Amino acid sequence: MPIRTATARWQGNLTEGSGTIKTGKGGIQGNYSFKSRFEEGEGTNPEELIGAAHSGCFSMAFSKALSDEGFTPNSVETVAKVHMDKTDAGFSVTRIDLETVGDVPGIDDAAFQKIAVAAKEGCPISRLLSPGAEITLSAKLA
């Protein structure tokens, strides 16, 4: 398997400085700052990028799991809400809420839910993040 890379450059102090984040092949690139991370400023932040990685990984894992069970999805759309809180150890990602909607012909809700939970458990990014953060799942059929 290839090794994936990303880079970040920060200039200046914590509160007044600024930075850029870029994935290895340049598919995602953005500016970030103290305000975009800890307030509501313009730009991205590491937590949004974790959310993007998690929602993308889960959507693919869920699509595969559905197909493996004989249900080819038309689409799977997932939002990852990353919660960062101040803890005794400092700022920490404490919870990620995955909210997914699947357009999956021929499946009932019980099977959809069972496959969604299994996909969450098997998603590589979920496995990476779950020891340190609670991961919740809300799965709905379109």
Automatic annotation (TrEMBL):
GO terms for biological process: response to oxidative stress. One of its GO terms (molecular function) is peroxidase activity. InterPro entries: KH_dom-like_a/b, OsmC/Ohr_fam, OsmC/Ohrsf, OsmC_Ohr_Peroxiredoxin, Peroxiredoxin_OsmC. Pfam families: OsmC. Transmembrane segments: none annotated. This is Osmotically inducible protein OsmC. It comes from Paractinoplanes atraurantiacus.
